[in-house]
Automatic annotation (TrEMBL):
Family to which this protein belongs: Belongs to the HGH1 family.
Residue ranges occupied by any Protein HGH1 C-terminal domain in the UniProt entry: 281-334
InterPro entries associated with the record: ARM-type_fold, Hgh1, Protein_HGH1_C, Protein_HGH1_N
Chain intervals for the UniProt region annotation (Disordered): 331-363
Protein origin, superkingdom: Eukaryota
Biased composition (Basic and acidic residues): 331-350
Protein's name in the database: Protein HGH1 homolog
Annotated Acidic residues bias: 351-363
SUPFAM superfamilies in alphabetical order: ARM repeat
Short name of one Pfam family: DUF384
Residue ranges of every copy of the Protein HGH1 N-terminal domain listed in the record: 93-276
C-alpha cells in the first residue's frame, strides 16, 4: 500500500488541473526534506515533473521549484541534465518575453550546470524572439537575456543566469566562446557581463565575478583582456575593490581614468568573497609580462595595498599578498610557475567547492 505522501506525489500527474496545483503546492517542502519520495519506480515522479513545467503558470511555478530543490540530489541532477528534450524545453520557455516563471527557470539552469552534461549547451540552437535581438545560439540568447534584465520580461531579473555562466565557463570551449567576437552583433560576450561588477544585486555581482575569473583561465586571450579596444577588463575589476581612499597625486594621476576623482562616498564591494575573486583574476592575468607591466603602469599596487589594509578577511589578504609579490618582483627574478597553476590547484575553472555561487540553489 502506498503511503499518503506517495499518493500525493502521484496526484501531481492527475488529469484535473486543480488537483495537480494542490498536489504540487503541498509537495514543495518535501522536495527539500524527503527527496527520496520522488525517486520511486525508477524516477517516474521525476519524469512526470519534467513534463509538467509546461503546465498552467501557477502549477508550473511549484513544479519548477520542486525540480530546483531536487537537483541537489546527484542522481536526479544527472537525470535532469542529461535529458536533452527537457533542457530544450527549459531553454524554449525562458526566452519567452511573457514567461512568468523565467527567474525560477534561471535558478534551475544554474543548478543543472553543476553537471558536466550542460556543457553541450554551447552547440544548442533555437530561433530567438524578435524582441531579444539575438542570434540562434542559445548561449548568446542567455547572455542577451541577462543584459536586458526586467526590460525584457517584467517578471524576471535573470540574476541567477550569472551562476549558470560561472559554471559553464569551467569548460575550456565555453571560456573560448566568451572571449570571441560574435558575428551577429560584433561584441565579445564577456564585455556584456563586465558592466555588472558593481550591480546592486549581490547574486549578479558574485556570478559575474566568478565568470570573469573562470574565463581568465584562457591565457591566450589575456592580451584581449588588457586591450582597451577589446575586453578592457581592468577598470571593471579594480572599481569594485576600490574604496574612498586618497592616494598620492603621482599615484592617482597614473591610475586608469575611471579610478581617478572617485566620489568621497565610494565604497568597495561589501562581499569579501567577490573582492577575493577579483584579486585572483588580477593574479591570473599577471601570468603574462604584458599584463604585469600594464598593472604596474596604472598603479594597481596602491589599490591592492589599501584593499589588504582595509578588508579584514584572511582569504582576501592572502590573495592581495600573492598579487603584490608578483607586481613588486623584479622581472629578472620571475619564477616560471604560472598563476594558472597557482590558482588552478582547486579545479579547472578556478572555483572553490565552497564558493557560494557553486552551491545548489534551494527555494
Amino acid at each position: 500500500m502506498p503511503t499518503e505522501l506517495e499518493e500525493l506525489v502521484g496526484l501531481v500527474a492527475d488529469r484535473n488541473p486543480q488537483v495537480r496545483l494542490i498536489a504540487a503546492e503541498h509537495l514543495v517542502p518535501y522536495s527539500i526534506s524527503q527527496p527520496n519520495i520522488f525517486k520511486a519506480d525508477n524516477l517516474k515522479p521525476i519524469h512526470n515533473l519534467k513534463l509538467l513545467i509546461k503546465d498552467l503558470p501557477n502549477t508550473a511555478e511549484h513544479i519548477i521549484t520542486i525540480l530546483i530543490n531536487l537537483s541537489a540530489d546527484s542522481e536526479i541532477l544527472a537525470n535532469l541534465a542529461s535529458d536533452d528534450k527537457f533542457i530544450s524545453e527549459v531553454l524554449r520557455q525562458i526566452i519567452v518575453p511573457t514567461e512568468p516563471n523565467a527567474n525560477l527557470l534561471s535558478m534551475l539552469l544554474a543548478n543543472l550546470a553543476k553537471s558536466d552534461f550542460l556543457k553541450t549547451m554551447l552547440h544548442k540552437k533555437q530561433t530567438p524572439p524578435e524582441e531579444l535581438k539575438s542570434d540562434d545560439l542559445v548561449v548568446n540568447q542567455l547572455v542577451d537575456l541577462f543584459v536586458k534584465e526586467a526590460a525584457y520580461n517584467k517578471h524576471a531579473d535573470f540574476d541567477h543566469l550569472s551562476y549558470l555562466f560561472a559554471d559553464l565557463t569551467k569548460h575550456a570551449e565555453i571560456r573560448h566562446h566568451f572571449v570571441r567576437r560574435q558575428e551577429y552583433d560584433g561584441v565579445i560576450p564577456i564585455t556584456k557581463l563586465k558592466v555588472f561588477t558593481e550591480h546592486k544585486s549581490n547574486i549578479r555581482r558574485k556570478g559575474v565575478a566568478s565568470t570573469i575569473k573562470n574565463v581568465a583561465f584562457d591565457v591566450p586571450s589575456h592580451p584581449l583582456f588588457i586591450s582597451e579596444d577589446d575586453i578592457d577588463i581592468l577598470p571593471y575589476i579594480l572599481l569594485p575593490i576600490t574604496g574612498n581612499e586618497e592616494y598620492d597625486l603621482e599615484e592617482a594621476m597614473a591610475m586608469l581614468p575611471d579610478l581617478q576623482l572617485l566620489p568621497p562616498d565610494k565604497q568597495r564591494d561589501s562581499d569579501p568573497n567577490i573582492i577575493q575573486t577579483h584579486v585572483e583574476t588580477l593574479l591570473l592575468l599577471s601570468t603574462t609580462r604584458e599584463a604585469r607591466d600594464r598593472m604596474r603602469e596604472v598603479k594597481v599596487y596602491p589599490i591592492i595595498r589599501e584593499t589588504h589594509a582595509r578588508v579584514q578577511n584572511e582569504d582576501v589578504q592572502d590573495a592581495c599578498e600573492r598579487l603584490v609579490q608578483v607586481l613588486m618582483r623584479d622581472e629578472a627574478d620571475e619564477k616560471p610557475k604560472s598563476r594558472v597553476e597557482e590558482i588552478g590547484e582547486v579545479k579547472e575553472g578556478g572555483k572553490d567547492e565552497d564558493d557560494d555561487d557553486d552551491q545548489i540553489v534551494e527555494v
